[in-house]
Design a protein that fits this description.
Structural class: mainly beta
Helix content: under 10%
Shape: flat
Largest sheet: 9 strands, antiparallel
Order of helices and strands: HEEEEEHEEEEEEEEEEEEEEEEEEEEE
Distance between the termini: 89 Å
Number of helices: 2
Length: about 400
């Protein structure tokens, strides 16, 4: 019996040894996988906004072979075949993917695919050759293993989805590199706007084609602004907006043919600045007055270092006041202790525009009403404490206005 037990024990040990030595050690490695389009669906040659809900293309692909028995996650990669051969400006998306476990399919609508095209830096309204690939990801963070499928190449003409633009062009300058007014959407021609620092010269407005190409623009002459800043826009190019000395301007435009004559509104302003309870002591009633910031022509930013009452709110305004800045009487202020006034606080009629943060993003500014909206909270709990902050704002990118608050150590 002892001999039998010894034999069994020996045989079991031998089996276990062989099993351990034959265990496979999995190592992740890229082995590639194939992408195919569903040939039952023919992609449209020309994309139309009216057909945005139609199916454009359906894709399917093999499971990526990573050398380990673990599933990957996938995304779609779109790039310009002719102008981006190394995929450096490719656009990545998970739109249209079937997220069911191991489904490995993607159905893109016309609107979905057109949206990806519009994100390409080389997007144009003419025909483009587009590469579609699938990206496989195994793992997370810096240890992730990426693989890419073969490309599927299609020829297609997209339609623009970006907002409409107008170039404000000084005589002799290139409209492509000139400052731009931007509308709220691709279909809106009534609310172009922008903040500008203009050097002396004669200015006209240039309208490109629907894709922003200024090769054959419509050129508008600008009439003489009225006392309210309203000026005509004339396609006969007969007039210029004349700037005699460098200054800041807030300009809006309406070229919608259905609303009568095309017009623009040109308003000059002296400075931007914060205003509101965060900029005043507890005894100060005059919170409508702003503290003017300094403009950096090189970096195109308004900046100031000043005290704010933590936990209280403020907004920004651009203002055109008369006379020199003076210190209000009997009004306690955090430093700097001055506001733009001419004997009294500026009236609301001298306000050119107001910007605030409606969505509490901490960085994005949008136009807000005069009375309420868009309050920005000075960081900290409201307890009467005053802290010094560096405040920066940039309005040089139309409809993409930003700000930043940074506490400055005492």
């Amino acid at each position: 019996m002892k001999n039998i037990l010894r034999s069994v024990t020996f045989l079991l040990s031998l089996v276990l040894f062989n099993s351990c030595t034959n265990d496979k050690e999995f190592v992740a490695s890229a082995n590639g996988f194939e992408l195919r389009k569903d040939n039952s669906i023919t992609p449209a040659d020309i994309l139309l906004e009216a057909n945005s809900a139609d199916t454009f293309i359906k894709l399917e692909w093999d499971r990526s072979d990573n050398g380990v028995p673990t599933s990957s996650t996938y995304s779609i990669i779109v790039s310009d075949h002719d102008n981006d051969p190394d995929y450096s400006d490719a656009v990545e998306s998970v739109v249209g993917l079937d997220l069911t476990a191991d489904a490995r399919t993607c159905t893109l609508k016309v609107g979905d695919f057109n949206g990806l095209l519009n994100k390409l830096p080389s997007f144009t309204c003419s025909e483009m050759n587009i590469d579609i690939r699938v990206k496989s990801k195994l793992g997370v963070a810096s240890n992730a293993l990426f693989q890419y499928s073969n490309p599927v190449t299609i020829s297609v003409t997209g339609y623009p989805t970006l907002s409409q633009i107008l170039a404000l062009v000084k005589e002799g300058d290139n409209p492509d590199t000139s400052q731009k007014l931007v509308s709220s959407s691709v279909s809106n021609l009534t609310d172009y706007e922008g903040y500008f620092y203009l050097e002396p010269g004669n200015y006209k407005m240039y309208r490109p084609d629907g894709c922003g190409d200024f090769s054959n623009p419509t050129i508008y002459g600008i009439g003489i602004p009225s006392t309210t800043g309203v000026a005509s826009l004339s396609s006969d190019q007969s007039q210029n907006f004349v700037v005699t000395e460098a200054a800041h301007f807030y300009i809006k435009a309406n070229i919608d043919a259905g609303s009568g004559a095309s017009t623009c509104t040109i308003k000059k302003y002296r400075a931007f600045g914060p205003f509101g309870p965060a900029t005043r002591g507890t005894g100060g009633a005059n919170v409508a007055s702003m503290v003017p910031m300094t403009y950096d022509v090189i970096n195109k930013k308004w900046t100031i270092i000043m005290d704010l009452i933590v936990g209280k709110n403020f907004r920004f305004k651009s203002n055109m006041w008369e006379g020199d800045v003076v210190t209000p009487v009997d009004e306690p202020l955090p430093s700097p202790s001055y506001v733009p006034t001419s004997g009294a606080a500026p009236s609301f009629t001298s306000i050119i525009s107001l910007l605030g943060d409606l969505n509490s993003t901490g960085s994005i500014l949008v136009p807000v009403p005069v009375a309420i909206g868009g309050e920005i909270k000075a960081p900290g709990t409201e307890n009467g404490a005053i802290k010094k902050f560096k405040i920066e704002m940039n309005v040089s990118n139309p409809r993409n206005y930003t700000y930043q608050l940074e506490e400055v150590p005492n």
